[in-house]
Specification:
The protein is mostly beta strands. Helix content is 0%, strand content 36%. 24% of the residues are buried.
């Protein structure tokens, strides 16, 4: 499984309260972007050892163990709280460093209705790259200027 380094807490990050004190025992929760559905993060770049959710920060306000947080190639929401569960910050729609997510659709003869949750990076129809002038993205919906063939594989890469 490919995982990517999180820009929130990533490597050797240290967290603080809003007054500048070290966030000893602070909690960093991970969710699917825009939700309160827990989403797993990992201790290593192999993505084979799940972190606790929340990640409880050590006495120095750092991520314990490896000091690293690795995440799947999907958007996350991070919620940072102090040891008493008082909210400090929320970071939503966060992708791992260098992550590009892929959504697959099957062509249905329509030009609209392909929902994406990021910025389209590249679009392929049955393996053929589509020039940017063949589609547009507005309000999270990708619209083609000409309908892709029915049953064609549509791959949308985004970040």
């Amino acid at each position: 499984m490919a995982v990517f380094l999180s820009p929130v807490g990533g490597v050797a990050a240290q967290f603080f309260t809003n007054t500048g004190a070290v966030l000893t025992g602070g909690k960093l929760y991970t969710y699917a972007a825009g939700t309160t559905t827990p989403l797993t993060s990992y201790t290593t770049n192999a993505g084979n050892v799940a972190r606790t959710n929340p990640v409880v920060l050590d006495a120095a306000g750092r991520v314990p163990g490896s000091g690293e947080i690795w995440i799947n190639p999907v958007p996350y929401k991070f919620v940072l709280k102090d040891s008493n569960d008082v909210l400090i910050a929320t970071y939503d729609n966060v992708f791992g460093v260098g992550a590009v997510a892929v959504q697959n659709y099957t062509g249905n003869g329509s030009t609209v209705g392909y929902a994406i949750s990021g910025n389209a990076v590249a679009v392929y129809i049955s393996g053929v790259y589509q020039n940017r002038n063949t589609y547009s993205v507005a309000s999270g919906t990708l619209t083609f200027s000409e309908a892709p063939p029915s049953n064609s594989l549509i791959e949308i890469l985004y970040n």
